[in-house]
Amino acid sequence: MTAELARYDAMCRAIDEAYQIDEVKDIRDKALALEVYSRQAKNIEAERRACEIRLRAERKAGELRRQEEKSKGAAAPSVPPQGGRRPPTNDERRKELGISKKQDERWQKLAAVPQEDFEAALAEPGVPTASGIIAKLAEKRSKPMDSAALWLWGRMKDFERNGILADDPDRVWAEMADHMRADMRRLVPRVCEWLNQLEASNAEQGNIGGREAARNSVCRV
């Protein structure tokens, strides 16, 4: 088991450090062979690890392919570099790599999945699949975001972006007019109470950080 984990970590590092698609595809092909062998041997844990390696490699290959397309699109497609040849078409590039159009498109879709969502999908029970990960992203994007959630997130980010959290509260208070201070005295306690309820709700959902925040929550005016 220790040797398998070491090999898994080494392959993950190799994928992260790779900058050539051929290199990543070679890792992907080896992981696929291990995946098939593990499935035949009914070694579920080994199959899952090999599957994760394959998906990571496919996602990295998709990232590199997207970079290729972006750099090719930035240049004039009809004018080859001086002394060089024109960039290969998509079909020519796929033939060079030994992949199909379907694989190329799927890998680039995997690359479009945010890292956080990708890692969460790999952590779920069972053996992950590329199609399942891509489908979850499509479902997530199709669901409209609640306007109140977006607004609150934006205001919290504004505190950080505008440097408010690093400013001196006494200085900011001193800069306010009397009617502004009156509104602050009225609204701050209500806002603090609402935020404390948000923290408590976060804790009830099993978020460790939420529990800690709820225990330490102190909102004074």
From TrEMBL:
Residue ranges of the region described as Disordered: 61-101
- UniProtKB keywords: Coiled coil
Q: Where is the composition biased (Basic and acidic residues)?
A: 61-72, 88-101
Query: So which domain of life are we looking at?
Result: Bacteria
Q: Is Coiled coil one of the keywords?
A: yes
Give coiled-coil spans as residue ranges: 34-61
Could you tell me what this protein is called? Uncharacterized protein
